[in-house]
Design goal:
Layout lengths: L5 E5 L4 E5 L4 H11 L3 H6 L8 E4 L4 E11 L4 E11 L3 E5 L5 H12 L1 H7 L3 H14 L1 H20 L4 H21 L2 H11 L8 H67 L14 H22 L4
Parallel strand pairs: 2-6
Antiparallel strand pairs: 1-2, 3-4, 4-5, 5-6
Helix pairs in contact: 5-9, 6-7, 6-9, 7-9, 8-9, 9-10
Amino acid sequence: MTPTTIHTVENKKYKWVNVVRTGEEELQYLEKAYGFHPLDLKDCLPPLQRPKVVPRQNYLFAIFVFPVFNGHSREIEQHEVDFFIMKDRVITVHDNTFVDLKNFFQLMELKPDYKHEIMRSPAHFVSQILDELFDACFPMLFHVSNDIDTLRAQVLHGYSRKTVHEILRLKNNVAAFRKTMQPHRDLLRRVMNLLPKYIKMSPLDQHFFDRLVDHTKEIWDHLETYYNAIDAVQDTHTTLLQFRLNEIMKTLTIFSIIILSLTFFSNLFIIEGISTPIIGSYFDWWAIIGLMTIGTLAAIGIFKKKKWL
């Protein structure tokens, strides 16, 4: 019996089996129904596997990893989509976190004409599934760009702990995004080279896969730009923070000079000596205050002359 988490759409030429849960029940069904290699089925289970392409006798097994934005933690996570590409069908195995893939499957169910048109060429259909996954990256890039612009404005308005956390969050998101997308170009080229052994590919189908490679390059170029932009924002924030710290240290230094001068003269005149000057005269208190003031101003003047303040 087919598990309820395995859905299919098909036409006369091709079939899409969409497995939306990576559990033991689903993988046992795939093993019995299609005889997939145990190592390939094991790779479908958590934890996340590295992207790779494995040619088998009757099918091509490929692991793709794509970014998914977690709205709760506001972090970009990595999720896996496994492909079993065969002559008469393609099987995708994932954890059902890809909204665009869900929408694409529903579109195939709701529009038979569109399904018939797009499944007429198996290679084109496989490339279209990948295209949906790659296209889902662009809205995330747009949000990252907006977050960087917002962060840049926040940095210029002053220091806050929230700004520091936001810089780190964005930097981690872009790093995770880059790590996810880096293997895709070589992975797609390997799939392009191996796919003709399993399904027929026309020059037009080749063009669709070339377009996917262009998508990866475009995404990577955006990520490079954003990575440099975040570094610039972080450098600006660090510079402003150092400037603020210098201003604080300057203020503390002035207070230290004042306190040092006052302490010096107060300690000097509390010595109980017979020959202590000024002490005992009629204006001794005012004379000591004057000496303290002159000493403080002299110390500040020396520091300013040395350009330490």
